[in-house]
Amino acid sequence: FSPEEATVIYVLGGPGSGKGTQCAKLVRDYGFKHLSAGDLLREEQDRPGSEFGELIKSYIKEGQIVPMEVTVQLLENAMRAAIDKEGKHMFLIDGFPRKMDQALKFEEAVCKSKFTLFFDCPEEVMQERLLNRGKTSGRSDDNAESIKKRFKTFEETSMPVVDYFAKEGRVVQIEAVKSPDEIYETVKEKLAERGI
Ligand code: UP5
Ligand code: MG
């Protein structure tokens, strides 16, 4: 994708930090196309005839990162469809890239991001949110055992991506402990500072 074709903002943060919640507000007010890598993987997992269904299922339950070829392809297809069918050019890519190889591959082969919105939240807070959501979400990874694995993967594998972009001055960090509306006020201010 050329820069005229697509503006990409990555949305990162630990499991339960509120990425999806904040993205929904941004879609409402700014007209971004929201692409959650996790949602795309869950859809692919449930798609009849998918050759990746079983693989995705086991990776998600174990809190592991699905091999990047699968995720990058799903994202690329979804971006192409949004441009062609909806005329959308501004993308919030939520929960991706969460491993260094994905980050380098996507930036080189698909589209360079404008910056990363990073939601910073302590594990205790995220854990409480996820266990609470688990009562009704039906998500296979919203249980204490999977949550623990997701936190470990986030610290070991995904934080290096955030650190890498931060070194380049391309991270907008937001404290994500207060209420969704309070956090969103900060998000809007920080986006305005970046000319959005
Ligand atoms: N909530 C939200 N904000 C709140 C607030 N300020 N105060 C109080 N409550 C708040 O929120 C989580 C819950 O908290 C909700 O109930 C919400 O109401 C409440 P949400 O906005 O959904 O947080 P989010 O950060 O989006 O949490 P999510 O669970 O989606 O994060 P994950 O990053 O764990 O999940 P994702 O779907 O991105 O990935 C799932 C799995 O897919 C990964 O573990 C991995 O196995 C796989 N994956 C890959 O392999 N590769 C990828 O590139 C991406 C995913
Ligand atoms: Mg999410």
The largest β sheet comes out as: 5 strands, parallel
Helix content estimate = 55-70%
Spatially, the strands of the biggest sheet line up as 2-3-1-4-5
How many angstroms does the end-to-end distance come to?
20 Å
Bound molecules: P1-(adenosine-5'-P5-(uridine-5')pentaphosphate, magnesium ion
- Give the number of DSSP strands: 5
Which overall shape is indicated by the principal axes computed on the Cα atoms?
Answer: globular
Number of helices: 8
Pfam families: ADK (PF00406)
Function: Catalyzes the phosphorylation of pyrimidine nucleoside monophosphates at the expense of ATP. Plays an important role in de novo pyrimidine nucleotide biosynthesis. Has preference for UMP and dUMP as phosphate acceptors, but can also use CMP, dCMP and AMP.
Cofactor: Mg(2+)
Family: Belongs to the adenylate kinase family. UMP-CMP kinase subfamily.
